[in-house]
Design a protein that fits this description.
It is a single chain. By secondary structure, this protein is α/β, with parallel strands linked by helices. About 50% of the residues lie in helices and about 15% in strands. It is built from ten helices and seven strands. It has a five-stranded mixed β-sheet with strand order 5-4-3-6-7, with helices on both faces. α1 (about 1-20) runs parallel beside α2, α3 packs across α10 (about 265-280) and α4 (about 120-130) runs parallel beside α6. The longest helix is centred in the last third of the chain and has 30 residues, at about 195-220. The radius of gyration is 20 Å and the shape is globular. Bound molecules: 5'-O-[(R)-(carboxyoxy)(hydroxy)phosphoryl]adenosine and zinc ion. The site of 5'-O-[(R)-(carboxyoxy)(hydroxy)phosphoryl]adenosine (KG4) has 19 residues, from α4 and α5.
Length: about 300
Amino acid sequence: MLAKREHEKNLPALLEQTLKEAKASEDLEGIDYIAVTAGPGLEPALWAGIVFAEELGKKCSKPVIAVNHMEGHLFSFLLEEAKPVEFPAIGLLVSGGHTELVSVESFNKYEIIGKTRDDAVGEAFDKTARLLDLPYPGGPKISKLASISRERGDEDIFKFTRPMIHTEDFDFSYSGLKTALLYKTKELGELSTETKERLARGFEDAAIDPLISKTAKAVELYGAKTLIVGGGVSANKYLRERLTTLSEDLGLDLRLPTQELATDNALMIAVAAFANLQTGKERIPQTIKAEGNLKLG
Ligand code: KG4
Ligand code: ZN
């Protein structure tokens, strides 16, 4: 519940500061809509945002659009470059709670074609970081250690099994990799900095290979011209490099958010609301409900 109270405490000050930076007035003059995340996520935290947005909407007589958090990630690349998208596209969404492959026919027509059967890839980064005594969020720290080992050209590489890499579907699994890391760290005992770097690299290789191979397979099957990537893990340097190579090899237009806008932010929620308005898919219910398990589609 701490998250909920923290949100309630921070929201008024955040709004004040944002309006000041945007040189907008307190009554939101010149602003047409308010966008708020309705799900998925922790419901108490979602409610804090929804109640705040609805009160603001009433006070300023502005409609409030309910946005899907994952749609925010899917559209966050538009913040980087607003050039037209060539469809069909494949979307790869990688965050702390989700790992999904999405077939995107157009801005308002898409469906999930594969997902993780257990842990999300970001969660695997965070759990591996904890095993290596690194603080949350683990992704950026693991990435840094792994790149030290890669740049040093370590040859004695820890090789973990690539989960589900050869299955015919577009699903993923990350809980086995987490367990493999747990056993390996137990076996090794005290970990030197260099061993941690090599472990991080072994983990990152095993975590990212299935993302690349399943994405390639999906691109081929769906005849995609564009590859859209989003979610906190899309800030990962090595993943971005692998996606760049893949896109060059397959002649794809790769659309990624900047590293700063890959992780959760409010701009992506605004851009998803904007995309929804453009395609007539906006949801402006009388009252918005927090939907912890809200699905994409
Ligand atoms: O999308 P996000 O900000 O929040 C959720 O919706 O979950 O994603 C957070 C996840 C965390 O698991 C975090 O460790 C991971 O994204 N992450 C990264 C990197 N930056 C954030 N994972 C790998 N490499 C990174 N550079
Ligand atoms: Zn997110």
